[in-house]
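Lab channel / #folding
Pinned by the channel admin:
"Please post every new chain as: sequence first, then the C-alpha cells as a reply. Keep commentary short and put observations after the output so the thread stays searchable."

First post following the new format, from NK:
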Amino acid sequence: MSQSDPPRVLSLTPAPLSRDSRALKAAMAYARAGFDSRVIEGLASAKEWDGWPIRVRAVRRGEPQLLRGIGHRGLRNRRDGPFAFIIFLAYLAYYLLNYGLRPLINMRRATLFHLHSYEYFPLVRLWTALFGGRYVYDAHDFYADLDPRVDALPAQRQWIRPFQRWIERHCIRGAAAVLVVSDGIAALVEAHYGRRPDVIRNCHDLRLDGKSPRTLREASGLDKDAFLVVSVGHYKPGMAVEEALEALASLPPRVHLAFVGGGYEFDESIARLGLTGRVHALGAMPASEVVPLIEGADAALTHYYSYTPNYENALPNGLFQAIAAGLPLVYSPLPQIRRLLEPYGAGIPADAKSPPAIAAAIGRLAGDPAECRRQAEASRRAGEALSFEREEERLIEIVRRIAPLPDPVAARAAFRS
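Reply from TO:
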C-alpha cells in the first residue's frame, strides 16, 4: 500500500462469507468507514461479490464429500490410546493446511486483521510479526464449552480440545480487542481467560438485504390459510428440535413449521409424529436473503435451551433476523434473550424443552389474530431499536482506539466508488 491508500482491514472467516452474516456486517462496516476492506473466506460463497465495496477471496472452492465424511467419523471416534493420537495428528495436518498454508496466497499487509475464528491466530500472529499490523479476535461463541458430548470423546478430550483452547488463550491474550455477541458470553470469556471482551451484538443489518427469489410460503408450498412458523439458523445441539416437533404434532393441521438453515435431518421423528407435509426444511441460504424470505411467515420460533453455558448466554443471529422481519416471536426465556426482548414487550416466552409450553404459545398466536398483530408490532419496535447501525458505531469506536481511521472525506469517496 502506498501512503495515499486508505488503511486496510483484512477479515478472515472459515465459513463462506455469504453464510457468515457477522463477518459480512463487520466487513461492510469497515468499508463504510473508508477502509480498504478485504475478506478471506475459508470456503467459497454461493454468490458473487461484484459490485460490493469489499474484496473477497476464497481459500478453497469446496471439500470432497468423501473427505468430509472421513473427517467427521474420525473426530467422533470413540477409540482411545494410540488411535486417538493418530486422529489428532490427522486433525493437525488438516489444521495446518487449511488455516496456515492455503490462506497464505491471499494474505496481504493490513493495518488491522479481524479474526472470526481463533484457528487463524498462528498465521496472523506470524504475519503481523513480519509485516506489522494488529488484530481483533471476534468470538462468535464461547468455544471452551460448546458441546460436552463431543468434548468427551477420547481424541477430543485428550488432544484436540486442549490444543484448541491453548490457541484461543494465546489469541485472546495478544489481541488488540476481543469481541463477543452478548454480556453473558463476555462474562464467560473473562472468567475462563481473564480478559473482559467488548460486546457487539449480532443485530441484523437491513442495508445488506437483497431480494429473495421466492417467499417462505411459496418455498414451503403452502397457501394463505396455513399458519406458518419459521425457525431460523443452522441446527446446533443446543436447539430443542424434537420438542418443537412434538409441540407441532399437538397443534391443528393448519399450523406448519419451516426450518431455514442446514442440518435438520429429523425425517424419522417427522414420520413418527405424523408430521409429513407439515415440516419444511429449506436448507442454508445467503444471509442477505434470509429476512426477505421469512417476512411472509406468520410467526418465528427461537428454541435454544441451556445445553451449555454458551447456549444459556446466546443471542442467536436467527433471533435478530426474526425481529427484523417483524414476526411475532415465541422464544425460550434464556437470560440474555429475555433481557433483550422484555423492554419492548416483544415475544411470548416458552420453555424450549416443554412441548406443551411451545404448543400453547404458538396456539395463542395462531388462534388470536389481534394478539398476532400486537406481537408483530412489538417485534417491529424491537427491530428498529436493535439495528446493526448502532452496533457498527460501537465497532468503529473500538477500532478507533487501536488503528488510525481513514480521512472522513476520503472514506465517503472510497465507499461511493
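NK: The chain has 18 helices and 13 strands.
TO: also worth noting, The longest strand covers residues 36-43.
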